[in-house]
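Illustration: Acetate kinase.
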Amino acid sequence: MKILVINCGSSSLKYQLIDMNGEEVLCKGLVERIGIEGSKIKHDTTGKERVIIEEPMANHKVALGLVLNALIDENHGAIKSMDEIGAVGHRVVHGGETFASSVIIDDEVMKVLDECIELAPLHNPPNITGIEACKELMPNTPMVAVFDTAFHQTMEADNYIYPIPYEYYEKYKIRRYGFHGTSHKYVSLRAAEILGKDIKDLNIVTCHLGNGSSVCAVQGGKSVDTSMGFTPLEGLAMGTRSGDIDPAIIPFIMDKENMSFEEVNNMLNKQSGVLGISGISSDFRDLEIAANEGNERAKLALDVFVNRVKKYVGAYVATMCRVDALVFTAGIGENSGSIREKVCEGLECLGINIDTELNNVRGEEAKLNKDSNSVNILVIPTNEELMIARDTLELVSK
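Result:
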């Protein structure tokens, strides 16, 4: 079966067409500036040269129509007919407490997605728009929603309830949800495959480190704790997000700077993290260059980031009593040997010993632990699209 994977942002759309017989990517692409002047598609079909399609795209329906046309184009397409697409898998950021796994999309699912908009006002609306556009363009093709939050629904209440009046959980469902679940699920399953073990027998700490970052404790294949919370703002210091801070800082800054809630929220999400500390960039590559050139604030930003990751790794080892594997993934986790090395420094007491020579690797699967007596340290490039396609195939095949 060929499955189309769709990931809609507010003005963008990423897609992949995957042949599940061998899990081969037939084509993939990125649509940019939907609803904005200068919209275009970067379309790559395996074995063919990249094509740039520049067309006005007033909305996601128009964009998806152009994507579908690109898929069947006789020159740069990957299939001859839309009938070859057996199902569509949609990435959806928030499924609330309702969805603990991926689901086939029907009217009831769409109703719940609408109800979850207040939990993810920036992300769920474009996800829903993409689903509605696909349903209109492909009315007879089954569709599946795969949620970033679903993997973390196995957390126990003592890990997801916040120490605020319980009525706010009852009334507004304020709790830790966690995100990056599709990535954490994929790399933990892949780690078990690499180690030749049953996932049910493993305790794994997965570190999804990118511009947005989170750490997850995976015990027996289930998420038991994760660093992101009610929103993706909680947890690690990130590219532009603050991560964990004293809540009293917010009213203090609002008073001192005469800032509105919207201004403070924007500051915490878009002006903080390593960008806020360094004053230079949210790109860790820029920070590493600046730190090596002697920029103290760039170095401090990296140190704060590493320190937060290390704290969560240590906490999750304690949560699970032991750790069989530490996994690094996403842009920083897959490509920055220096960040991986700094995270592992000082964790030797937990059996985490990284081999600096093996650590000289970028963007490919690798095993980095010094010896067989050490905790397995793995680099695993994440593949959320494949995880979405697998879930979609499993559901529609039933």
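Reading the tokens back as a structure: DSSP finds 14 helices and 14 strands in the chain.
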